[in-house]
């Protein structure tokens, strides 16, 4: 049994609003090296911690955490669409173990996921169904949000469960770092948007979906011209976060106030709780070492964009 971790930002704007060829080449090199390391590790099972953007999870019932017993990617922004290869019995056992450990994650037998899940599977594994994957949703946009501490405990419970498997397991965290794309909020939504956020967005008609995507694309183009048009990226906060992970000090985030983080680094920064959960899972295997840390502000993608791998010292 061995474990490996990779965490990375995502953005649906990849390929739609791109940075310069030099920056793209740097990122391509980062991802192809990560892909190679993962291929060498040859995972038999993936735990994918990722958020959603009102594509699969809505306010009719909004869980903090949800473990997929089966899942389908809907293919927003041209991301991959189709079924994930979820091993049902393992996912069920995992959910039981997590609840037994005191973390009341929801389950879904019909989980809908968006680019937050699809992009890392495409980028790191070459597709949605290339490796068995247990998808774990962490709510990072729909208030009230879970705390960093609960994300850590979720990760620890999954790490403990992983120990009972005799498998090579890859933990992936998807999202962040600092960013605030234009995602609607219930508190300020008009009646039509509120209705979408409460569930009608599940069956968004094609023209409305297209309009929604165009709004994000326009916002990205404007953000490149004028960095005051959205909440600014915060490379200082992002570097501090990466340092906390590298030094195995992410427990220090436990009581970080959600509102305060939104003000510091943008309302979508809460996606980094997926990284905390993944690192917490890894940490159940003892002290770890991070490798291949990458960071750059990429306004074209509305993202403080990061990527990092890690493995237990005992595996080095
Ligand atoms: O789906 C949406 O509306 C928001 C999309 C989005 C944009 C930029 C960075 C992200 O991480 C992200 O998820
Ligand atoms: Fe996101």
TrEMBL record:
One of its GO terms (molecular function) is 3-carboxyethylcatechol 2,3-dioxygenase activity. The keyword Transport does not apply. It comes from the Bacteria. The keyword Chloroplast does not apply. InterPro entries: DHPP/DHXA_dioxygenase, Xdiol_dOase_suB. It is an enzyme of class 1 (oxidoreductase). Pathway: Aromatic compound metabolism; 3-phenylpropanoate degradation. Pfam families: LigB. Keywords: Aromatic hydrocarbons catabolism, Dioxygenase, Iron, Oxidoreductase. It catalyses: (2E)-3-(2,3-dihydroxyphenyl)prop-2-enoate + O2 = (2Z,4E,7E)-2-hydroxy-6-oxonona-2,4,7-trienedioate + H(+); 3-(2,3-dihydroxyphenyl)propanoate + O2 = (2Z,4E)-2-hydroxy-6-oxonona-2,4-dienedioate + H(+). The active site is at 115 (proton donor), 179 (proton acceptor). Residues 5-306 form the Extradiol ring-cleavage dioxygenase class III enzyme subunit B domain. Its cofactor is Fe(2+). Belongs to the LigB/MhpB extradiol dioxygenase family. Homotetramer. Catalyzes the non-heme iron(II)-dependent oxidative cleavage of 2,3-dihydroxyphenylpropionic acid and 2,3-dihydroxicinnamic acid into 2-hydroxy-6-ketononadienedioate and 2-hydroxy-6-ketononatrienedioate, respectively. This is 2,3-dihydroxyphenylpropionate/2,3-dihydroxicinnamic acid 1,2-dioxygenase. The lineage of its organism: Bacteria, Pseudomonadati, Pseudomonadota, Gammaproteobacteria, Pseudomonadales. The gene is mhpB.
């Amino acid at each position: 049994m061995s474990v490996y971790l990779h965490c990375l930002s995502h953005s649906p704007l990849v390929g739609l609003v791109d940075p310069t060829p030099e920056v793209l080449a740097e990122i391509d090199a980062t991802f192809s090296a990560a892909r190679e390391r993962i291929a060498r590790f040859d995972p038999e099972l993936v735990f994918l911690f990722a958020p959603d953007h009102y594509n699969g999870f809505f306010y009719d019932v909004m869980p903090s955490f949800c473990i997929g017993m089966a899942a389908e990617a809907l293919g927003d922004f041209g991301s991959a669409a189709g079924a994930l290869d979820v091993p049902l019995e393992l996912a069920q056992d995992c959910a039981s173990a997590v609840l037994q450990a005191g973390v009341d994650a929801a389950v879904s037998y019909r989980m809908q996921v968006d680019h937050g899940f699809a992009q890392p599977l495409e980028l790191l594994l070459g597709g949605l169904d290339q490796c068995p994957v247990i998808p774990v949703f962490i709510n990072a946009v729909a208030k009230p949000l879970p705390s960093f501490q609960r994300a850590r405990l979720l990760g620890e419970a999954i790490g403990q469960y992983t120990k009972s498997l005799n498998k090579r397991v890859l933990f992936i965290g998807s999202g962040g770092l600092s960013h605030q794309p234009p995602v609607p909020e219930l508190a300020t939504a008009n009646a039509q948007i509120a209705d979408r956020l409460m569930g009608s967005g599940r069956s968004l008609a094609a023209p409305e979906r297209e309009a929604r995507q165009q709004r994000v694309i326009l916002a990205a183009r404007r953000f490149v011209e004028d960095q005051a048009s959205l909440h600014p990226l915060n490379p200082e906060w992002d570097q501090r976060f990466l340092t906390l992970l590298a030094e195995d000090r992410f427990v220090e985030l436990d009581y970080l106030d959600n509102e305060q983080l939104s003000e510091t680094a943008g309302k979508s920064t809460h996606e980094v709780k997926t990284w905390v959960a993944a690192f917490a899972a890894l940490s159940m295997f003892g002290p770890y070492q991070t490798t291949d840390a990458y960071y750059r502000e990429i306004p074209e993608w509305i993202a403080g964009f990061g990527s990092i791998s890690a493995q237990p010292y005992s595996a080095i």
